[in-house]
Each structure stands twice: as C-alpha cells, then as structure tokens.
Amino acid sequence: MTPDLEMLEVLRCDLQKSGKRTDSYPKRLHNINWVLSLDLSGLVHPVRMKHISVYETLAGEHVLMAIPGKESKRNGKGLRPFDFFPLLFRADGTQMEDLSFGRAFASFCEFVETSGTDRQFALRLLSATVYRMAFMLDHSLAVKEPAVRLVGHDDDGTLTNGMSQMKHFEPYYSFEPDGRVLPAFRREIPSLHVSVEGLLKYLDVIVWNEDTKYYYGRKQELARKGKLGEEPEWLRETGRINTLLSGLTVLGFGSGIVELSDLVDRFTRQRGVAPVADAEIESMSGGLIGTAKQAEPTLSLD
Question: Of 102, 100, 71, which Cα lies nearest the Cα of 214?
Fold first, then answer.
C-alpha cells in the first residue's frame, strides 16, 4: 500500500455528536425502519431464513444479511424477531468464518501491523474510516435490487439453498466510502483471506443489527406500558456508535496508544463498552478527526 496523504484528506471531519439534530439520526432511523418493514412470514431460524445481498466489494466479495437470527427465538423481553447477522462470501464462493466483534478488530490490528513501514498511514486510514462509519458520514441512500435467497435446513440438518432472485427494496443507507480510499481497502487481511473493505461492510451489518435490536426493544417497552404509537427515546450512542467507537479503543490498544490496564478498566466500568476518547481518535487518525484542517499528524508508531 503506497501512502497517499492527499487521499487521506477526504476523511477529515470534526468530532461528532449523536443526538436527534445530527446527520446520523435520520440515517440510523431510516435503516432501522427498513429492517422492521421486511416481510418475515414463514421464516424461522435456522429452519427457513432469507439471505439478502446488501454489499459487494471491489474484490468481488458479497456481504449478506441473514434474517431472522437466533434472538428471534427468545422468549419474553429478550425476543427480537428482526434479529439478523452478516455472512461474507469471497469471490471464489467460499464463506468467511463467523467473526466475533473482538476478532474483527483484532484483524484490523493485523492489517495495521502487516503494513510494514506504512503502519502509520494504515492506522490513520482505518481509524478515520471507522470513526466516520460510526456516525454514517459515508452512508448514502442506495436504490438497489439485491439478490434474495431462501435458505433452509432439512430434517437431517442438510443446508438447502433456494434460487437467488433479484427483488426490489425501498432504498436504504449504504456504507460507500469515498472512491479515492477504496483501492487501499482492497488489500487482503492475511488470516481471513478477505479484503479490508469486505470486513468493514461485514461490521456495518453487525452494527445495523445493534441499532435495530435496541430500538425494537425500546418500542416493545413502550407497548408493555400501554403507550403504543409513541416514539421511543432515541438511542444516541447506544448501538452502532458505542460498538464501533469501542472497537477503535481496541485498535488503539493494538497500536500502542491505549494502555492495557486502561482498556480493561473501561470495558469493566462501562458494562462492555469503551468508546475511544476524543484525544485518542485524534492521535490515531493523525489529526484527521477533530482538529483544524491544516493540522500536522503527531502520531508515531516507532
């Protein structure tokens, strides 16, 4: 990967907020309601599911939304009928193993560490992109007709794939980074044999589900109180923002910016989330996030 400092300038942005008056609010709410409007008639996890192809990468990979997920089978307050999860298929048709959130960000650390003399550039590029992704700065309304496939399991557990059909959906906000940075994300993560772009879009589906689950849960809480039709309290940082900013804290630890003791303390103290601090993301991005436009990067990984 050849450093292109001019390319990084397209990622520059101010520190973001998460309230209703932000640009991310209507995008997040739109995508939540997009999922909640899906027809799930006759679908039962894992017996009969839908796979919706929501992303394709420059490397020819496909990222699918598999719905409904396992939380659709819970009882009581934990029931999430619109739970879903991502699947990533490489260009050769093989499927990437399911990744935990931690493993995904460990793989981003691998991307930075295997960048050799370009580690600082890779960290600036990735940290700024993930930060922008948390606040949906690079999401645009996409009119697509993704392939949809019904998938089921026979009584003996054999997987059966139905025919893929193109289906019209209402537009949704799709994560599409600036075309000037995409070629850098075509690079493969060695341990996964998938591109950085593929893993970013895989993560986007994970945090899309986080938003949907939390919002649905708040709507159900209102319904239990007899307040049908009322709009639930907005998620703010809960969901995609806290999840991705916590991942940046992990990336900061992997890059030597966040101390191990601080990492553990924050995850413990904040019940499983540890959003990156403003000063940390400014350092990791080399000044691309939250500083004056002409600020010089101060980060050093040596």
Answer: 71
Q: How confident is the model at residue 220 (pLDDT cuts 50, 70, 90)?
A: confident
Do the domain assignments include residue 292?
no
- Residue 94 per-residue DSSP state: P
Length of the chain equals 302
- Bridge partners of 188? 195
- Return the DSSP state at 68: S
| DSSP-assigned letter for residue 232 | P
For residue 218, what are its two tokens?
């708040």
Residue 129 resides in a domain: yes
Domains contained in the chain, number:
1
Residue 35 falls within a domain, yes or no? yes
Distance, CA of 92 to CA of 25 (rounded, Å): 37
Amino acid letter, residue 12:
R
For residue 181, what are the domain limits? 5-284
Q: How far apart are CA 82 and CA 211, in angstroms?
A: 11
Q: pLDDT tens, 223-275?
A: 888 887 788 889 899 999 999 999 999 999 988 898 888 888 888 887 788 99
Does a structural domain hold residue 63? yes
**What values do phi and psi take at 117, rounded to 5?**
-70, -10
Task: Give which of 36, 275, 61, 28 is closest to 175, Cα–Cα.
Answer: 28
> Span 27-46, mean pLDDT?
94
Per DSSP, the residues of 161-208 read E---EE-----EEEE---TTTGGGGGSEETTTTEEHHHHHHHHHHHHH
C-alpha distances in angstroms, 122 versus 8, 182, 220?
10, 13, 42
